Amino acid sequence: MLALIIVSIACFAAASTAAIACAVARRAVRRADRAVADVESARAAADAASTQLEAARIHGSIDRTRRRQVEAVFDVLRDAILVTDANGDVLHANTHASRLLSVASADAAGRPVADVVSDRRLSSSIETASRGHAGDGRSAEQEIQVDGEPVAFEILRRTVGDEDEPMRATVTVLRDLSEEREIARLKGDFVSKASHELRTPLSSIAAYIEMLVDGDADDEASRQDFYRVIQTETDRLKRLVDNLLNISRIEAGLMCIDRTCVDIGDLVQRAVTTLGPQAAAKRLEIHARPSADIEIDADEDMLYQVLVNLLSNAIKYTPDGGRITMTCDADNLARNLHVSVADTGLGIPPDEVDRIFEKFHRIENYQRLAEGTGLGLNLCRHIVETLHGGRIGVESTLGKGSRFWFSVPMGQLQMSVAA
Ligand code: ADP
């Protein structure tokens, strides 16, 4: 019996031990499961954190890239741009602004706008706008001192962000109006000079026609005189309009050049023959000596026009008995034709040398000596430089004479020296 009890107790003990062992084992398994779950959730959290970090890194680099792109856009603009924060401190000054304000871009950043912009009116208006006290997108005109000179600017503003937003920024754009104003002035100048030049022959034509209609020319000889004046003035008007149209077509890029093989010696000879009678009337000697038979690839009619203009000017502005020399030389190495028309005439005052190539510019003292439109040299410059890619210029000594010259590329053609 005792043995049975002992065996039963032993069995019970064994069973209990096994049950305990099982329970321990189950707990251990649950703990292990929890640990695995913890590890997995920790890994997931780490993964999420690393994804967020990566996203932040990418965003940071996108922000930096965007910022650099915006700054690059600012820098290529011809306007001066100043970005300020809500306190009126400079966040960014583009290259043009730093040049205008004489401060390096990097030095401007972080400084109060009043330190960077010396013009008090401008700096206080930027400050006011930055602090949110000025209307958005406002445009105003203001003169600012640049290198000691007053320069007119249009000032435009745009604010990014609300008034209570800490990241609010104000962009101030300063647009230089000098070029615009100069173009408007030149246009006005051109229109008034062109109208004046057109009105002079027109008034004369109208007056002579009126006299003919009123019967003021009572004999045939007077009538013929009146007809001649009308014809001369009509020719002048036609020349003026033709020159004006040609210049504006070239300036608008609408003039096509018709390149052919041009014998420059023949062209010079034709110009001398055409203007020979005018030279003879003033007893002027013309020496034309092309150094060789030179052929170039150019627009024949246009080059002829240049030669005629230069020769006609030499005749007009050289007193009786003077001498005119035309030379043509080919630089076969550089493939350039060089032409010059030298006279023993009045010469050009040094301060007028650059101006005589401008539209309608005539030397005042010479105006009564010869008729002219002041467009001939401007057209020559366009034909030589704009259309043929050459150069034109003048050297002159007042009272002794002038030497007008031009050179143009010879193109693909060859030069053959005369036998
Ligand atoms: P214009 O029809 O008045 O001759 P141009 O444009 O051909 O017009 O010349 C402009 C001005 O340059 C002339 O009015 C004249 O004052 C000056 N000029 C041109 N050629 C000569 C020259 N050979 N000698 C002196 N002055 C010249």
* Strand content bin: 15-25%
Structural class: alpha+beta
Total beta strand runs: 12
Oligomerization category of the chains in this entry: single chain
Provide mean pLDDT, rounded.
Answer: 84
Q: Order of strands in the sheet with the most strands?
A: 2-1-5-4-3
Rg: 44 Å
Order of helices and strands: HEEHHHHEEEHHEHEEHEEHEE
Main sheet, how many strands, which sense, barrel? 5 strands, antiparallel
What is the helical fraction, as a range of percent? Answer: 40-55%
Query: How many DSSP H or I helices?
Result: 10
Q: Identify the bound ligands.
A: adenosine-5'-diphosphate
Low-confidence stretches: 1-18, 414-419
- Report the span from N to C terminus: 156 Å
Morphology call: elongated
Describe the structure.
This protein has 419 residues and is α+β, with helices and mostly antiparallel strands. It has helices spanning 2-76, 95-100, 105-108, 113-116, 120-130, 178-213, 220-251, 264-281, 300-316, 376-387, and strands at residues 80-85, 90-93, 139-146, 149-160, 169-176, 259-263, 285-290, 295-299, 323-331, 336-343, 391-397, 401-409. The chain is built from ten helices and twelve strands. The chain is elongated. It starts with a helix and ends in a 10-residue tail after the last strand. Residues 1-18 and 414-419 have low confidence and may be disordered. The structure holds adenosine-5'-diphosphate (ADP). Adenosine-5'-diphosphate binds at residues 309, 313-314, 317, 343, 345-346, 348, 356, 361-363, 366, 372-378, 402.
